[in-house]
Amino acid sequence: MESIPISVEGFRRLERELERLKKERPGVILAIKEAREEGDLRENAGYEAARERQGMLEARINYIESRMSRFNVIDLATLGGEQVIFGATVEIEDVDTGDVKKYTLLGPDEAEPSKGSISLLSPVGLALLGKFVGDEIVVDAPRGKINYEIVSIAFHGPIAAADD
Question: Coiled-coil ranges per the record?
Answer without folding.
Answer: 12-38
